[in-house]
């Protein structure tokens, strides 16, 4: 694909930062909450950006979109987060056109995740695409690409075993707790924050620990109550946070706050306390490590889990990659079709003009001219001609660009509009 013909003056980019080069503090500076995402979409629209999708999770923040230069997208990101262009340049990656497409497939399929095979990211991409479409910022190219990535993700999940074992942050967090704390089933566990990661972690806690001493706290109490009802757990008011922390053996923090909500002043106990911070930005202040008996672990430490299951999942990467290549080829074939669609459409209009002029001439020459028969025959011929050209342009052995130029020149097709 030498040219994209999907945008009159822009290229397609995937840019952002992830756990690979950016630590939790930097990722926190570039994280986008829901209101920031909406602001970014609105600003993109005002700046003339035609299409983009934003993802911001605990492990990455990315923008997939069209721009004349990637700095347009970088600027949008920096203006809606606490990060700077200088910080971005140190840890970021930028992919263009076919490389951007490949990157999106790997991310959406869990091959680029901190925990190999994590399929939570695909739901984020789906949700982001819906938001972009609502804001009229999802053009046919990007919508088709998102759907192709979703298709590849589904196939990899069902056709390979890459999703076996700890394939999500929420599951890995529970596994980490098991490896770090003895007698987990008998410990007092407090989960603070019941967003998506919090909900999934809660479900894994109940399922795998068989612990009946799990308490939930959320700033919005009814959100916690909805989850607690499903698992028959205890919910406490946000006002009771400090009291509940001091009664806990394990504290899991998964809030969406933009600054630390837990620090050493909230902890007024000398007994051992294991704290797992699953938030980006970090929601537990590092000063808690000054307290005796407190062990603080952040989600970045979860990637250090290496077990037999993880190694087995790695064996399925080649199969997953072959699925991606298959789906990506279908997408690229569609893209090539879009490349010559304007020419074929213009050619058909040109042939119709010939038909109208010729039928008008023959109508004047021939008595009892059979209008219906002439229409049918000429339309069938036009369809056969355009189909013939379309099949020719799909041939991998010919230069599509040269053929397009020749067709335009021979039939004098001017002012084509890219689709």
UniProtKB/TrEMBL annotation:
NADP(+) binds at residues 193-198. Its EC number is 1.2.1.70. It catalyses: (S)-4-amino-5-oxopentanoate + tRNA(Glu) + NADP(+) = L-glutamyl-tRNA(Glu) + NADPH + H(+). One of its GO terms (molecular function) is glutamyl-tRNA reductase activity. Substrate binds at residues 57-60, 113, 118-120, 124. Pathway: Porphyrin-containing compound metabolism; protoporphyrin-IX biosynthesis; 5-aminolevulinate from L-glutamyl-tRNA(Glu): step 1/2. Keywords: NADP, Oxidoreductase, Porphyrin biosynthesis. The active site is at residue 58. Residues 15-160 form the Glutamyl-tRNA reductase N-terminal domain. InterPro entries: 4pyrrol_synth_GluRdtase (IPR000343), 4pyrrol_synth_GluRdtase_dimer (IPR015896), 4pyrrol_synth_GluRdtase_N (IPR015895), GluRdtase_CS (IPR018214), GluRdtase_dimer_dom_sf (IPR036453), GluRdtase_N_sf (IPR036343), NAD(P)-bd_dom_sf (IPR036291), Shikm_DH/Glu-tRNA_Rdtase (IPR006151). Residues 320-413 form the Tetrapyrrole biosynthesis glutamyl-tRNA reductase dimerisation domain. The record marks 103 as: Important for activity. The keyword Oxidoreductase applies. Residues 181-305 form the Quinate/shikimate 5-dehydrogenase/glutamyl-tRNA reductase domain. Catalyzes the NADPH-dependent reduction of glutamyl-tRNA(Glu) to glutamate 1-semialdehyde (GSA). Homodimer. During catalysis, the active site Cys acts as a nucleophile attacking the alpha-carbonyl group of tRNA-bound glutamate with the formation of a thioester intermediate between enzyme and glutamate, and the concomitant release of tRNA(Glu). The thioester intermediate is finally reduced by direct hydride transfer from NADPH, to form the product GSA. Possesses an unusual extended V-shaped dimeric structure with each monomer consisting of three distinct domains arranged along a curved 'spinal' alpha-helix. The N-terminal catalytic domain specifically recognizes the glutamate moiety of the substrate. The second domain is the NADPH-binding domain, and the third C-terminal domain is responsible for dimerization. Belongs to the glutamyl-tRNA reductase family. This is Glutamyl-tRNA reductase. The gene is hemA.
């Amino acid at each position: 694909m030498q040219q994209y013909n999907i945008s009159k003056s822009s290229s397609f980019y995937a840019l952002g930062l992830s756990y690979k080069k950016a630590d939790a503090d930097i990722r926190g500076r570039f994280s986008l909450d829901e209101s920031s995402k909406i602001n970014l979409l609105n600003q993109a629209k005002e700046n003339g950006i035609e299409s983009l999708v934003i993802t911001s999770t605990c492990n990455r923040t990315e923008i997939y979109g069209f721009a004349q230069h990637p700095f347009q997208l970088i600027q949008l990101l920096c203006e809606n987060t606490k990060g700077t262009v200088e910080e971005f340049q140190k840890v970021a990656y930028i992919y263009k056109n076919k490389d951007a497409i490949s990157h999106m497939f790997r991310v959406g399929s869990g091959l680029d995740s901190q925990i190999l095979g994590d399929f939570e990211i695909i739901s984020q991409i789906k949700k982001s695409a819906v938001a972009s479409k609502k804001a009229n910022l999802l053009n046919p190219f990007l919508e088709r690409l998102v759907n192709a990535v979703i298709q590849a993700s589904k196939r990899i999940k069902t056709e390979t075993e890459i999703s076996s074992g700890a394939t999500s942050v929420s599951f890995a967090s529970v596994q980490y707790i098991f490896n770090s704390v003895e007698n987990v089933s008998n410990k007092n566990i407090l989960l603070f924050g019941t967003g998506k990661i919090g909900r999934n972690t809660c479900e894994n806690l109940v399922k795998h620990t068989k612990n009946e001493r799990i308490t939930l706290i959320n700033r919005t109490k009814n959100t916690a109550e909805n989850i607690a009802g499903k698992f028959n757990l205890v919910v406490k008011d946000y006002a009771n946070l400090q009291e509940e922390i001091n009664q806990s053996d394990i504290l899991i923090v998964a809030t969406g706050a933009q600054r630390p909500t837990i620090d050493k002043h909230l902890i007024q106990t000398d007994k051992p306390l294991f704290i797992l911070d699953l938030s980006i930005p970090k929601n537990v202040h590092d000063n808690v490590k000054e307290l005796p008996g407190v062990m603080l672990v952040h989600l970045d430490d979860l990637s250090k889990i290496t077990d037999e299951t993880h190694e087995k999942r790695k064996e399925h990467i080649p199969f997953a990659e072959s699925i991606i290549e298959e789906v990506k080829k279908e997408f690229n074939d569609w893209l090539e079709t879009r490349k010559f669609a304007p020419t074929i459409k213009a050619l058909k209009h040109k042939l119709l003009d010939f038909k109208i002029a010729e039928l008008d001439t023959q109508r004047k020459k021939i008595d009892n001219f059979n209008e219906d028969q002439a229409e049918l025959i000429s339309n069938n011929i036009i369809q056969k001609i355009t189909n013939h050209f379309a099949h020719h342009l799909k041939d991998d052995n010919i230069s599509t660009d040269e053929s397009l130029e020749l067709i335009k020149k021979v039939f004098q097709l001017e002012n084509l509009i890219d689709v």
